[in-house]
């Protein structure tokens, strides 16, 4: 007997040891990367930038500046001289300005730049080494997350070292360059004045790059007519340019999702499918630096001064902005042989009228600002020839007529703090008149317009009369019912119908309320606050939406309550957001009821602290009519609730009834994106707590996509990712059959996790 006990004890000890030993194949999906200092630092920084914004006046990101390269006027001036001095090249014929000329939008207006051996500047340059990519602009490059089209340089100092030494570009040996500069007394004096107090010699290759970087940080564009509009001069943009701004930030084109204000660029690298130039080897872009997962991805460039920098894209394949717009309207690279699945998920086909295309081009031209363009020096210390001043050679400018007409000012009836709008007038005129604290009172009737809400502290209130409400009717022609950036905004009492892209959208706003809104057939979304802090959506109803009826994304401090969502692809979606309460909503007859997602390639990289409580989620068995290739098109028909990669999500007090695939699922990103996908977010759900809900008759007829994944229908689904997730439910069916509860011992939890993880790995 003692021997048997001893054997059992030894086996048990071995078992405990095996449980304690990390096994990568089983433990890689355990998660645990939530609630970290880095995560909370990101939350504070990301949402702090939003709250610091006011309307379209956005806070610029912090300009990356090395601690050992502080700014000084003397250093900037030294950098200016070096930038224009051909002494930086091996044969003393090429300066930085040959490829980044200030009069050519700090580019060279060539499709592909020309380096060593060439003569001339810009499109007239000939006889030299043709490079594989075009010159990106220096305008606002100081705000870039990384430098070059492929992000190979960490900052401007690092960037400056590349072209000087590249044998196809300036072809200079760095040590020989230092020796050449030491032979120029003026440079020796200037370097001693700027760097003489540091340890070691003042004139070094590193200090050369430091001075050039300091100069390039002065090349900032932030005073365009768009900026004047953003600062409150609502007459600074013409009517056409304002229409173009609306289209730019519309869900129809989705331009703003990669080129958002104020930098009009993005720190991420995107695959849009730019076609290769004939006879050129395929350019893999970021993948040549970062490896697998970034094939054909390139930096998202700034659009400031874009009219000055044609031709466009990394290889200059498009000559004009209209060509670029047409490329995206046709679905990006999908029209050039790229598989849609390889493209960024925001690249979708869209249609533009001739007027809309012209309006978008007009807006992009309104981003032009050369007020900080530096003066080309008359001479440089080396005595070598300096590039001359030139006329800009951008083909885009040649074909654009700059006719600016200020929009008319209209006066409506005012009664104290109320502005009265009737169907013979436009709501937009009321918004233009409104001042802080005003209410725009809209009487019943039909209004066919897109509202621009770029003011703060106003209420837009629909008035009910004889059971009639004011109706915003897009007539299946207009893209959006409303777009804007105002804070402390309430929109109350409207019917929104028949828009092609989106219902109501506010972006980077604080304290926004949507109340008593009914959206019907408004495109991708009904109610769409994105990158906001302080969101309330209540007593609204949405139907006929091809993505999410109520979508709150990249936002913080959210309440979605007492709403009805039916007949959509998904009813309610909380995406990449923090501190959300989804409460007392009725969600039925959608393909998916409620989604709480953390998706890659978005500005916010977190999904944390969402509570889904006391909702009635039933019969969400509608056919999924999401756009093919979109993320939401993969949500199985018959989904009650899906938590994907969210952290600390509590689900309690809800009724999940008659959802044919499953009642509530907690899954990681791999089920949607595949194990080989390269994520910029944590793909594992952590610390989710599903308890005390009412499940009835779920999973009775799982959708085809569920069956093809090797799964069955059930009340509860877990893909065995995230070790710290917990369930406490009675009388339910579940996959896997045993789900951990908070009171489980670590032995039970680890054993359960590894068994099901092993089986999941083996059988899929």
TrEMBL record:
Its EC number is 1.11.1.5. GO terms for cellular component: cell envelope. The keyword Cytoplasm does not apply. The chain crosses the membrane at residues 7-26. One of its GO terms (molecular function) is cytochrome-c peroxidase activity. Residues 239-368 form the Cytochrome c domain. Keywords: Heme, Iron, Membrane, Metal-binding, Oxidoreductase, Peroxidase, Transmembrane, Transmembrane helix. It is found in: Cell envelope. It is an enzyme of class 1 (oxidoreductase). Signal peptide: none annotated. InterPro entries: Beta_helix, Cyt_c-like_dom, Cyt_c-like_dom_sf, Cytochrome_c_Peroxidase/MauG, Di-haem_cyt_c_peroxidsae, PbH1, Pectin_lyas_fold, Pectin_lyase_fold/virulence. This is Cytochrome c551 peroxidase. It comes from hydrothermal vent metagenome.
């Amino acid at each position: 007997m003692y021997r048997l006990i001893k054997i059992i004890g030894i086996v048990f000890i071995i078992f405990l040891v095996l449980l304690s030993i990390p096994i990568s194949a089983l433990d890689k999906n355990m998660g645990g990367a939530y609630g970290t200092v880095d995560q909370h630092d990101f939350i504070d920084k990301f949402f702090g930038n939003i709250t610091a914004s006011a309307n379209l006046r956005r806070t610029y990101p912090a300009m990356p500046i090395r601690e050992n390269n502080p700014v000084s006027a003397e250093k900037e001036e030294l950098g200016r001289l070096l930038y224009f001095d051909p002494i930086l090249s091996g044969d003393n014929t090429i300066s930085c300005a040959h490829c980044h000329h200030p009069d050519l939008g700090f580019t060279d207006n060539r499709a592909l730049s020309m380096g060593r051996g060439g003569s001339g500047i810009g499109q007239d340059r000939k006889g030299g080494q043709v490079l594989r990519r075009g010159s990106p602009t220096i305008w606002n490059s100081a705000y870039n997350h990384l430098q070059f089209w492929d992000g190979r340089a960490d900052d401007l100092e690092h960037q400056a070292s590349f072209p000087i030494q590249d044998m196809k570009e300036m072809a200079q040996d760095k040590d020989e360059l230092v020796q050449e500069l030491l032979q120029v007394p003026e440079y020796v004096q200037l370097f001693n004045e700027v760097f003489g107090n540091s340890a070691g010699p003042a004139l070094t290759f590193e200090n050369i790059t430091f001075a050039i970087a300091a100069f390039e940080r002065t090349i900032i564009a932030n005073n365009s007519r768009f900026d004047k509009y953003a600062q409150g001069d609502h007459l600074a943009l013409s009517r056409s340019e304002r229409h173009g701004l609306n289209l730019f930030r519309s869900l129809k084109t989705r331009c703003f999702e990669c080129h958002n204000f104020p930098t009009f660029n993005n720190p991420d690298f995107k695959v849009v499918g730019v076609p290769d130039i004939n006879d050129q080897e395929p350019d893999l872009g970021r993948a040549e630096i970062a490896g697998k997962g970034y094939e054909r991805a390139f930096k998202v460039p700034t659009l400031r001064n874009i009219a000055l920098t044609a031709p466009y894209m990394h290889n200059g394949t498009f000559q004009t902005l209209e060509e670029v717009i047409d490329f995206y309207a046709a679905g990006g690279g999908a029209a050039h042989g790229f598989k849609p699945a390889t493209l960024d998920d925001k690249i979708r086909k869209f249609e533009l009228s001739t007027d809309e295309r012209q309006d978008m081009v007009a807006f992009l031209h309104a981003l032009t600002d050369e007020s900080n363009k530096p003066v080309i020096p008359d001479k440089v210390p080396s005595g070598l020839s300096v590039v001359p001043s030139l006329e800009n050679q951008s083909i885009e400018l040649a074909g654009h007529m700059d006719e600016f007409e200020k929009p008319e000012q209209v006066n409506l009836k005012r009664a104290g703090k109320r502005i009265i709008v009737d169907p013979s007038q436009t709501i937009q005129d009321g918004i233009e008149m409104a001042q802080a604290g005003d209410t725009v009172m809209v009487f019943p009737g039909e209004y066919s317009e897109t509202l621009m809400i770029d003011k703060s502290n106003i209420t837009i209130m629909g008035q009910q009369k004889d059971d009639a409400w004011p109706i915003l009717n897009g007539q299946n022609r207009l893209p959006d019912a409303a777009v804007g950036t105002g804070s402390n905004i309430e929109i109350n009492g409207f019917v929104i119908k028949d828009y092609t892209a989106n219902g109501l959208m506010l972006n980077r706003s604080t304290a926004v309320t949507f109340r008593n809104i009914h959206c019907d057939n408004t495109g991708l979304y009904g109610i769409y606050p994105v990158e906001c802090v302080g969101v309330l959506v209540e007593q609204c109803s949405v139907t006929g939406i091809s993505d999410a009826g109520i979508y709150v994304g990249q936002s913080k401090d959210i309440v979605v309550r007492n709403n009805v969502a039916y007949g959509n692809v998904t009813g309610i979606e909380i995406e990449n957001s923090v501190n959300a309460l989804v409460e007392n909503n009725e969600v039925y007859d959608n393909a998916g009821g409620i989604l709480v997602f953390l998706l890659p390639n978005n500005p916010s990289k977190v999904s944390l602290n969402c509570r889904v409580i006391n909702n009635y989620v039933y019969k969400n068995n509608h056919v999924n009519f999401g756009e093919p290739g979109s993320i939401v098109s993969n949500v199985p028909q018959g989904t009650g609730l899906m938590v994907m990669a969210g952290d600390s999500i509590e689900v309690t007090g809800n009724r999940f009834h008659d959802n044919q695939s499953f009642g509530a699922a907690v899954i990681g990103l791999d089920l949607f994106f595949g194990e080989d996908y390269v994520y910029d977010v944590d793909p594992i759900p952590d610390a989710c707590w599903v308890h005390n809900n009412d499940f009835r008759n779920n999973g009775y007829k799982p959708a085809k996509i569920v069956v093809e994944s090797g799964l069955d229908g059930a009340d509860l689904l877990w893909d065995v990712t995230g070790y710290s997730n917990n369930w406490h439910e009675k009388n339910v069916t579940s996959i896997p059959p045993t789900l951990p509860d908070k009171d489980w011992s670590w032995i039970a939890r680890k054993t359960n996790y590894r068994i099901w993880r092993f089986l999941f790995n083996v059988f899929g």
